Amino acid sequence: MDLTFATADAAAIPLHVVAQDALDAFCDAQPDKVARWLRATGFTGALGSVALVPDDAGGIAMALAGDGTPETRARGRFHLAGAAALLPEGTYALHGLAPERATTESLGWLLSQYSFDHYREQKHTTARLVAPEGVDAARIEAIAAGEALTRDLINVPASDMGPADLEGACATLATRHGASIEVIRGEALLEQNFPMIHTVGRASAQAPRLIDMRWGESGPTLTLVGKGVCFDTGGLNLKPATGMGLMKKDMGGAATVLGLAQMIMALGLPLRLRVLVPAVENSVAGNAFRPGDILTARNGLSVEINNTDAEGRLVLADALAFAAEEDPDLMVSMATLTGAARVAVGPDLSPYYTDDAALAGLLDAAAEQAADPVWRMPFHTPYESMIEPGIADLDNAPKGGFAGSITAALFLRRFAGQGRYAHFDIYGWNPAAAPARPKGGTGMGARALLEALPGALAL
User: Fold this and answer.
1) Exposed, middle or buried by CB within 10 Å (0-12, 13-18, 19+), for 46?
2) Is 1's pLDDT higher than 90?
3) I need a labelling partner for 387 at 20 to 30 A (CA). Which of 100, 111, 239, 337 fits?
4) What is the structure's pLDDT at 69?
């Protein structure tokens, strides 16, 4: 698996991207034998289709990738990746796309070369692409590498990606980029006032921990907080089998912020980065926390536990409170937090929350440019009463079933301090394969955040 561009080669096969309504004009501009070949093979320029034109020696003179119509293109993204998967092995040089579109499609091509082959060899795209003229090849490669890291971390099952393994992945990333890392484990969490991280993870065979990675010496401060629940049984409110099957992905928030950190550090962005990952497994044992327990968080707020399966917000709360003590210029949390978010927007959109309209505008514009769709959800303050149970300051699982993603976000906002803050309630999983996005773990929102960072940190 090589998520990089091919070296420019004079022998690279020209690959022309041709829309349906431009096919006749393209054929008219070609030698007669090429035009007759394309018409004889029935190539129409339909989205995702491919045509190969032979040369006189029996090789490939050129290839065409159908670009469909504006209507068909609007129904997906990374269309060239779909065509790349159909091309024979070789090196291709792209023609027919403006630089902005070429940037997006080139990223999709690199991402199509990803395969999760930790346990068995998998098929992946073998056609290689020369970096198109006018695109920032190093940036695209860094983004692809960050996305691959996120996918790998999510795809690895909990047997090989428990809290200790997630710590190891963080340490490897820190070493690669010269970052520092500190880890607070086990009973030390209580001694250093991280009671909710400890409580959620204490029933696991692997000790709970808070991973704290720092990188950069100057510039504005960015803190990323990622939910690292390496497996979620639901605790004593045990999930049914159907709800537990994908719980290896419940550390998708941590995987996504680590992928984003990889992008930031590889690109050498002028900022000071901090990544906090509360890494736990929500297990069942004699010392598991119980429904009805009342916990006191790092910032002093009391929390009534009405469902042990709403554990992600608990570990994030301590980490957010810790992060807020330094008052960073921007703080972002990412978590596979609620099923309610999936019901609201499905698996493809990244819902996010922020009180900062300027930040939201930057994120929305960046998401479109990065082909990483997001959707702003409301921090609806009138719902605050829904997370106030009466006998404690907060309720971790309000009854009633309404606005589950919003009430979870409101819960987290109580711990995030007064600075600029955004929370992403992501899914982290592709339920079905799509161009450049195989079934399995996936990053969500990271590319949009990367694109928005220069403006967001200048606000």
Assistant:
1) middle
2) no
3) 239
4) 97
pLDDT at 125 (0 to 100): 86
pLDDT value of residue 155:
98
Strand 228-232 relative to strand 221-226, pairing: unpaired
Report the distance separating Cα 337 and Cα 339, nearest Å.
7
Q: Which residues, in sequence order, are bridge partners of residue 211?
A: 183, 277
Burial of residue 447 (CB within 10 Å: 0-12, 13-18, 19+) is buried
Cβ(272)–Cβ(331) below 8 Å: no
Question: What 3-state DSSP class applies to 335?
Answer: strand
Could you give the 3-state DSSP secondary structure of residue 455? helix
| pLDDT at 390 > cutoff 80 | yes
DSSP 8-state assignment for residue 381: G
- Determine contact, residues 163/209, Cβ cutoff 8 Å: yes
DSSP 91-144: EEEEES--HHHHHHHHHHHHHHT----SSS------EEEBPPTTS-HHHHHHHH
- Name the β-bridge partners of 376: 352
pTM for the full predicted model: 0.97
Q: What is the rounded average pLDDT of the residues 89-113?
A: 95
101 flagged as catalytic: no
What is the residue whose two structure tokens read 């106030």? 388
Give me the residue label for tokens 């009138």.
382
Q: Which residues pair with 130 in a beta bridge?
A: 6
CB 355 within 8 A of CB 381: no
The per-residue pLDDT for range 152-177, each reduced to its tens digit, is 999 999 999 999 999 999 999 999 99
Catalytic residue among 73, 101, 239, 272: 239
CATH of 141-458, one of 3.40.630.10, 3.40.630.30, 2.60.40.10, 3.40.50.720: 3.40.630.10
Of 185, 274, 313, 447, catalytic: 313
- Is the CATH number of domain 13-135 3.40.220.10? yes
Annotation says 239 is catalytic: yes
Domain residue limits, the chain: 13-135, 141-458
Per DSSP, 292 falls in state T
Q: Which two tokens stand for residue 54?
A: 């032979």
List pLDDT tens digits, range 9-28.
Answer: 778 999 999 999 999 999 99
